[in-house]
Amino acid sequence: MGRRTRTILLTLALYATLLFTTSNAQAKTPLFVFGDSLYDGGMTLYNGIEGAGAEFWPYGDTYFKRPAGRYSDGRVIPDFLAQYVGLPFLRPYLQPGLEDFTQGINFASASACVLVETRPGTTIYSQGGRKFAFQNVGPIGCMPSMKSMLHYDGSCLEEPLELARMYNAEFATLANRLQYRLPGFKYTIYDFHPPCTSVS
């Protein structure tokens, strides 16, 4: 396997994260969030690495009016979901003093990935999680970071795009299989491609 392919597969692993799981044990279903910087609600502010968090301007500028630990100038995806279902913004798991997880918690952290041996979806299912939302891998061949790593000056790299398509097809098949195999397992997959490719 060439260095380029290994780099692409590593990037796929970073983006192929379990994003949200919910449990139906409460009247108001809590959200438990897993993911990378697209979902990080401030975890990296508490990881003990100096300067690792999104604690500088312009992060947070348009909504919080100050850096709020999110890799965005405003809210991130879990913030919108929490607001939509009437929950407060989810606090990051590493935030000191947290003891109540009944409204959910945000485990997402920038640069996070899922290890095959952890099998987070089935582990969470065994703990009572029944409703899952996943995001597929976006058009990584068009990302500036990917193009920079591979020294590409064009619009989009076809090899990472094809690897993402292959991964997404296999993941959709796996999720469908789980729905038939695990009683009560329900899922949705958010297709990250249209919003990314429609930006002009």
Written description of the protein model:
Belongs to the 'GDSL' lipolytic enzyme family. Residues 1-27 form the signal peptide. The protein has 200 residues and is an alpha/beta fold. It folds into two domains: 1-16 and 120-200, no CATH class; 26-112, no CATH class. It is built from six helices and five strands, in the order αββαβαβααβα. It has helices at residues 3-15, 77-84, 120-126, 144-149, 158-181, 193-197; strands at residues 18-23, 31-33, 104-106, 129-135, 186-190. The protein has a five-stranded mixed beta sheet with strand order 3-2-1-4-5, covered by helices on one side. Helix 1 packs across helix 5 (158-181). The longest helix is centred in the C-terminal third of the chain and has 24 residues, at 158-181. The radius of gyration is 17 Å and the shape is globular. The two termini are 34 Å apart.
Gross geometry: globular
Q: What is the count of DSSP helices, taking H or I runs of 4+ residues? A: 6
For the termini, the CA-CA separation is 34 Å
Kindly name the structural category.
alpha/beta
What proportion strand? 5-15%
Q: Percentage of helical residues? A: 25-40%
Order of helices and strands, N to C?
HEEHEHEHHEH
Mean pLDDT: 79
In this structure, how is the largest beta sheet organized?
A: 5 strands, mixed
Low-confidence region ranges: 7-26
Physical arrangement of strands within the biggest beta sheet: 3-2-1-4-5
Radius of gyration: 17 Å
Number of E strands:
5
**Number of structural units classed as domains:** 2
Keywords: Signal
Signal peptide: 1-27
GO molecular function: lipase activity
GO biological process, one term: lipid metabolic process
